Amino acid sequence: MSKKKRDAPMPASSAGLLRFFEDETRGIKVRPELVVAMAGALMVISILLRAFLSA
Description:
Blueprint: H1 32-53
């Protein structure tokens, strides 16, 4: 039996769309958990402001 290769080449695609994850881009790197937490906090603050300011 032969072992499976873990580093198999990616299939060819037009414009390299399947290999976008290999490109290193500049900019701020933010964890997904932080983005979800910030969105949740923004929703809660918005709901609280609407409830307290409309009374």
